[in-house]
Amino acid sequence: VNRWYANEYCSNRYVYKCHKIRTKFLNIFFRRTDIQEIRGGWSWFTWTPSIVDFVFNYLEKNPSYLKRFKYTNCGDELIFQTILFPEAQRLNLEMYRPYRYVSWKPKGRKTDVGNNFPYILNEEDFEDVYNSEAFFCRKVDLPVSSELLDLIDMKRECPFDINKALPISNSE
Predict the structure, then answer these.
(1) What is the pTM (predicted TM-score) of this model?
(2) What confidence score (pLDDT) does residue 126 get?
(3) Helix, strand or coil for residue 101?
(4) Which residues of the chain register pLDDT less than 50?
(5) Which residues of 17-55 are buried (b: 16+ CB within 10 A; e: fewer)?
(6) Under a CB-based contact definition with an 8 Å cutoff, are residues 123 and 147 in contact?
(7) Residue 112 neighbours by CB distance under 10 Å
């Protein structure tokens, strides 16, 4: 977070190149201020109303906080954790158990995805998902995860048809 990163979306490649050159210049000549007691962690956790209120109040009282994270890398995994960590116990926030099952390494399966992204779950992950005691799992995607979702529905004894739940597209 102390380096500048050219991470703004830009559809024009020439403007993006200028932006990258500018950030290189900034890294050479302008050191960023340190962020005190920075914390990192899950960006997938459940926000209760008290957490939402706390974060909005914090940002209102500290308007420069979000600006400091502009042009940084991994901001989403740092911004809220840094704010919330000192108040986690008071806010009843489970910092180390976000109640979401995420798998970064497939067991005995080949995948094109490295360790930087969670991989798409399938039926082979059912036991791990079920035994995790998590309320949610990440990532599921049709058709890869359809058998996993069917297994979860059978275990819940509550069949769910995703096709009926999806909104009707404009083409139909």
Answers:
(1) 0.57
(2) 93
(3) strand
(4) 170-172
(5) eebeeebeebeeeeeeeebeeebebeeebeeeeebeebb
(6) yes
(7) 5
